[in-house]
Design brief:
The structure is a homotetramer of 366-residue chains. Chain A is α/β, with parallel strands linked by helices and 366 residues long. Chain A has helices at residues 12-22, 42-45, 65-71, 83-87, 90-95, 110-116, 126-131, 137-145, 155-169, 199-202, 216-227, 276-287, 336-350; strands spanning 2-7, 27-33, 60-61, 74-77, 97-100, 133-134, 149-151, 179-184, 207-208, 241-246, 253-260, 264-265, 271-272, 293-295, 313-320, 325-332. In chain A, the strands form 3 sheets. Chain A has a 7-stranded parallel β-sheet, sandwiched between helices. The first copy, chain A, is globular and about 70 Å long. Chains in contact: A-B, A-C, A-D, B-C, B-D, C-D. Chain A binds chain D through residues 176, 179, 181, 183, 185, 200-201, 203-209, 211-212, 239-241, 243, 245, 247-252, 254, 256, 258, 301-305, 308, 318, 320, 322-323, 325, 327, 329, 331, 366, and chain D through 176, 179, 181, 183, 185, 200-201, 203-209, 211-212, 239-241, 243, 245, 247-252, 254, 256, 258, 301-305, 308, 318, 320, 322-323, 325, 327, 329, 331, 366.
Chain lengths: 366, 366, 366, 366
């Protein structure tokens, strides 16, 4: 049994990890770390867990990384930016594995981090930054297997990258024309008591935010830059517009993505714009064996309701011959594949378990 | 492996059965019966099931009870009132077990049925009516074990009865003072394309309906009447007010119940009104061993979010010394414990399996 | 032009007053009092007001009652409990009129206040308490006309009292059997940044709260007690159960009320239970001339969507001959008739204007 | 008093016209046309209108255009595609004015209509098509003044065009790079009893639809093509991607738009990319006098909650120097400025009234 600790267990992502692991046959949460609720029963803070947690573990404890490292085989940190990098040491990583749901170890480039995370300090320890593996399972599976420190991707990021990756990798689109318009449920904003997240402020409204400045932008740009290596690129970041929107629902992210098609040379020497079947082939090349990615048939588009509560990413697309663009859309549950589910998937990879353990729940509808 | 057929598989309750059984280790849906969608892939109608159903079963078929009876070990009928009783025969029950989610076999008293279900024909075959067992698992477990035909209770009914049962059974309240004010999510209204269930009609509104005439009333009155037998009563129906309300959410029922306390005689001969501890004791007597009923501590009240997606019923209460009443509240997921979950629980009882198989999902929050 | 000041202008109720007065031909807000936002443009805090407020008034100012009393003909205080009574003086009332949306002057009985508002100090100045008029317009219109200090009723209270008043006043129900089960949208909880009011906590859930202890209870009990005077009663408080529920919508309150019918003596000397027409007659006696109360025809029930954004209270009822009870339901918009609208109605009465000025907006649907 | 008839009065847009005109000092609905509800009281179908409509008019009548033309000074047709063009004659237009909320007279180009509205017949009478004026008030005000037949724009269209118009007209963006990602509340789908619009299907989900094929696309392309004339263009249609999304709210449209900046030549002869102040200047040139368009300050973005229930369009933008694009966003209430409000605005223009009559309601929040 893998002994699991969670720092930030009483946030939405932390609690989602706890919920998923209730159904995991080989892992058990033994440490519910929570500063704000230390001393209280976890199942009193999250009433859905009532009667479901073994009495001896059902208590929120003041998080203490070195202590947890001794007690736990793996620690999930669902914490504010800067927290983990301020505390993590090589010693801790000798005792335990760490899967970080914050942005501390996602961006390799220190300058890029500084530019986008203005005023949010992180400890830029080069050794740890270099050691950290970006935990986008379907793309980086092999590197994750041997990691000690996993930087779990952001929710917008996971959805945005997975939706465009094969087309960038195969050179079917011009990556610098990529425009990502994303819509997110409100749980992505966390459980903090903030006025903009009140029911009456969110309900019956939609708004863009972080336009041209959202921090998930460089993460997408860096990772899709790597994708270019598949088709002879140098791996340098691409340049995109990314606009998130808040919509009145709890879970779910939908990313609608637009890019200009790039002419490709056929074996015959002729150059043509990719058509639907070439696009589909590219998706299938990367995802046909992926349990958690469902490529939708032509004419069917992702809807967040079909993935809610599950670790799936649904992807659909259409070629627009009028504008010579492809329109793609991806949908996932921001708390599962966009956070806790992918974190558990990363844990499974780290411990050489089947990737789907604890993640087999069918999406819940309605 | 238990071979399962569902009639009405593309309704919300039918699809919920299908979803729960995906996680059941000893049962498998082999027949997705659906008149409206016959010939279509089930996973195309319910996109959440995409990739999750074995290819050969993933097709909606025209339901045919006698045929299904041969193919299936158990049939769930999630069908309109009158459907099952118009088709069911003893021969069918010799070949299979039937768990009916409609009201056809719930009310034993033919006159009561006629009075409340005006204009909705059912076949009042006395033998089948008498054979049918009311499938409220926690109350009728023993009778269910040997049944062939289970009348699965309604969603309001399950919640309303479970919340009041111990207090009626122990004689702590005057049952004829019982007033039940229930609030339901919209999935209870089914998947029919009806104007009152449109998003814009339901959202941002709350309304009572079926006031003094809702059909779940006599079901509650009959079953709580039986409860009186525990304390020397004759089992005749009680007389209540039941008012359902539609509220803008998908899943969940909350029943708030009010009743006047009844004086009880202490061993000392003194007569007193029951206090909180006596009420709690009554609940514990009936429910302390029940896996799917969670009695909440004093001061904690049920909220539907804590049971969503699960088979739990949460129950809380307070004694009001000012008015000499007890206020009780119960919450459950109308599609799970209020329909499909209880149906699966009944199936487990019928097949002598652990009751919780397929029903261990933790509630999903947020 | 009546010069209006609002203390607490950036709360939901305060802002609603401001919004209603935009459409009032004889009143104008000249002082937007707000501690939290002092110095900021009001129309930046509430973006719906952009371009709608005269430049010179469009600024949130630190509230200062004596100062405002000189500047304003009337002051609305939409403030926390205890605020107004801590500051109000006879001098202020010599300069201005005050309409208080808090509970400071609602309960006449000091002991009752202490019992229900434990730990929430108010200044129990007997002269001011005695001077204050309970501003339930349809009931207390005459007293309000000459008042200087109006205690604007609570939202639950307005709805609960108006729904039952005629039946209590006419002696058609036994008031001590009255049970009020109320459902409220979330704006009633105010604009404070509190975790329980976050979108993800409120949405897709329903919960009771303040069961047996909610502070609107004694307000209802006191006012319905006065109603008994119409039928020879002594005006002492009645004794009820009142249970509020939070539901996932922004605006709206629905109160479902249950009471046992009381036998009445006909002119013939015969005693009978009141039937539907007698109940209707009672409602019409009190409300047929009331512009803001809509008595619904038999079989039609109030729904909050039909009153949203308006000052209406819709009322419906049914007699249940089985249980000898009447079930009533009332619906209103908690921010309008339940707060700001009634406050403006009170202002109109105070200034001898037509009651409907500024309140003629039709309900907004969908 | 302008005598108004509405065909399709019981649809959401038709009822919204009726609601707005309740507050209009110079117009009155005298004919509530509704096929489905003919013979029923309008205020029984839309309970919000109870007590608000003069008795003699409060009845849904079978619509009959020639008859209505005699009775009414203006007719609003909120009807399915093809309805009006199948019935309209020059004789009718001699008796009355017609404001059509359907798409029958929006697209001038018959071939374009056929291509996008496949299978939806309209009568392509060239005289009427040529006479009809596209009723985008802020752009076509002068033409509307003298019209008899106004083609009221679609909801997505109004929002999309107004948001981009000044930048296209001033040549600040390359119009063929324009990508419009729109999010709409559910009332835009109408009041038909269709499964995809049920509460449980819409709530807690977001989905794109009509991707690359939505019928508002050519309307936007045609109208923004005209805009090019301001900067020397030929008025030929532009070519865009337009993707609508359904989100779980009732009212509101948000259009997020992306376009590449186009170099402009300064008086100095230097060519530069437009910066924020040049963009703002363009917006102000077109909109600074417009009562119903609110250009937001830098850093403030439109949110549909701030326009709900009003005739406003809020517009914000940001220049992204990294990608050399401008990101714009516009928000409006799809039933008001996106349908009924603009229709009333058009009526005011047709009758030479102040444009804002009946449209002065402040947005309702929360």
């Amino acid at each position: 049994m893998i002994r699991v600790g969670i720092v930030g267990a009483t946030g939405y992502a932390g609690a989602e990890i706890a919920g998923l692991l209730l159904g995991h046959p080989q892992a058990e949460v033994v440490f519910y770390g929570s500063k704000s609720y230390a001393g209280q029963k976890f199942s009193a803070v999250y009433g859905n867990f009532r009667n479901l947690i073994e009495e001896k573990y059902d208590i929120c404890r003041e998080p203490d990384l070195p202590e947890m490292a001794k007690e736990c085989d793996v620690i999930f940190t669902a914490t504010p930016q800067g927290y983990l990098s301020g505390l993590l040491t090589p010693e801790i990583l000798e005792n335990t594995k760490v899967i970080d749901l914050s942005a501390d170890y996602r961006l390799k480039d220190i300058e890029v981090y500084k530019q986008w995370y203005k005023g949010i300090e992180r400890n830029d320890d080069p050794a740890l930054l270099s050691e950290a593996v970006y935990g986008l399972c379907e793309i980086n599976r092999e590197d994750i297997q041997n990691a000690r420190l996993v930087a779990n991707p952001g929710c917008f990021t996971t959805c945005s990258i997975l939706t465009a990756y094969p087309l960038v990798a195969e050179g079917l689109i011009d990556p610098d024309t990529l425009i990502i318009d994303a819509k997110s449920g409100t749980s992505g904003a966390g459980r903090g008591a903030k006025l903009p997240n009140l029911f009456c402020e969110v309900n019956e409204s939609v708004k863009p935010y972080g336009v041209t400045t959202h921090r998930h932008t460089p993460e997408i740009e860096e990772q899709l830059g790597y994708a270019k290596r598949h088709c002879g690129g140098d791996g340098s970041p691409i340049l995109i517009n990314f606009t998130p929107h808040l919509i009145p629902m709890q879970r779910g992210i939908l990313a609608t993505e637009y890019a200009s098609l790039r002419k490709v040379t056929l074996p015959t020497g002729k150059t043509v714009l990719p058509d639907e079947s070439m696009i589909r082939e590219a998706y299938e090349k990367y995802y046909s064996e992926e349990k958690f990615i469902r490529l939708l048939p032509a004419g069917v588009w992702p809807e967040t309701r079909w993935v809610e509560g599950s670790n799936f990413t649904d992807i659909g697309f259409a070629v627009d011959p009028r504008t010579k663009r492809v329109v793609m859309a991806g949908a996932l549950d921001n708390l599962v594949k966009g956070a806790a589910g992918q974190a558990v998937q990363n844990m499974n990879i780290l411990f050489a378990l089947p990737e789907y353990l604890g993640l087999e729940k069918a999406p819940l509808f309605p």
